[in-house]
Amino acid sequence: MHLTRRLCAPLSHFTRMKSLGLFAALTVLAAHSAALRASDVPAVALSSGGSMPLVGLGTWQVTGDRELEQALDAALEAGYRHIDTATIYNNEHLIGKVLKRWLSEGKVKREDLFISTKLPVYAMRAADVPDLLNQSLSRLQLDYVDMYLIHMPFGVNRESYNGVSIVAIGPNDTDPSTDHRAIWDAMVAEKEAGRARALGVSNFNESQIERLVKHSAVPPANLQVELHLFHQQKPLVEFCKKNSITVTAFSPIGSPGSKWLIKLSGKELPDLLNVPEVLEIAKKHRKTAAQVLLRHILQKGIAVIPKSSTPARVRQNIDILDFSLDDEDVASLDSLDKGIDGKLFIMKNIGGSVNHPEYPWTKLQNEATS
Ligand SMILES: NC(=O)c1ccc[n+]([C@@H]2O[C@H](COP(=O)([O-])OP(=O)(O)OC[C@H]3O[C@@H](n4cnc5c(N)ncnc54)[C@H](OP(=O)(O)O)[C@@H]3O)[C@@H](O)[C@H]2O)c1
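# NAP complex -> structure
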């Protein structure tokens, strides 16, 4: 009885989102046991078919064998089925190893998993798409991914990547020939061949997405984009909603492990986990600041993919389905949005990206080059 009540409040929010037409066919199933089951996690329908769990595990900056294994085991045990990776995270092979163990032991079925990976910035050419996706599938030991995303809208020369870090790509290695429509057509061919169940883009702006929507009979089903308390992306989310594109928030708790990278952009990383309003709301609901930050996004029908390699935090980050932020909480958190000024990742350190014709954040171009 108590456990059923646990999900009542969130369910009303998701139902309301559905009636608003925010994302269709959102499903929340009732909890039956104390341990969260994968089916307890709400999912959102994708325009190209199937659905995506709204809570996933981020894996950027997790490259240690043991570290990743521990995090992924904790996640799968806690009910996560959505795992986000990318070619440039250099961990697909480790994820593949853990998934293979879970699949071969019969602890999880392939059809219950939702694995997303990304076409890297050094392969932004139509001819590179089949090769790069095949490499990802081979490392992940899978026949298909559930979501294949174009990681960045800009491109660099393939030979400029040292196989370790995209931050090391020199400022003169940009490849201005990037043709989104041609790359997208190659992605659609992969979907038709069954190697990717759904397709999406990441770090694209509205006009870049619109170009693909107008171009293809298979428009992007998902946008993965930086989205958190200080950068809530309200206009972009509204645009996606109108175009039946689901949104996934990356860095949903403000990427506290990325101080080193933000410094490269000449910025300081704000500490979202210690914002007074967040702490106050957390105290009121007896939840942590991270859980409030995640719940604020989730309640809008946006997927969250927090990264943690600390098992207790992995569990904490999915334990956000048994409470609901009220209108006052939401209004307070909504008001903390700083718009473009709250953006953390300018990505100017990727092969001269700011000078690329497809650099997406024109408002930041001057700031990024200064
Ligand atoms: N498409 C893109 O361009 C792009 C860009 C960035 C990220 N992403 C994806 O989005 C995922 C998430 O973004 P992110 O890794 O930048 O940042 P994030 O998830 O906002 O933050 C991760 C950091 O928060 C800490 N943390 C996690 N849970 C916590 C908790 N409950 N309490 C306190 N600290 C906690 C983690 O530390 P511990 O690990 O030590 O627990 C880690 O340092 C990535 O991993 C990646 O999959 C995509």
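# post-check
Strands lie at 43-45, 51-53, 56-58, 82-84, 114-119, 147-150, 199-202, 222-226, 246-250, 303-304.
The CA atoms of residues 181 and 215 lie 7 Å apart.
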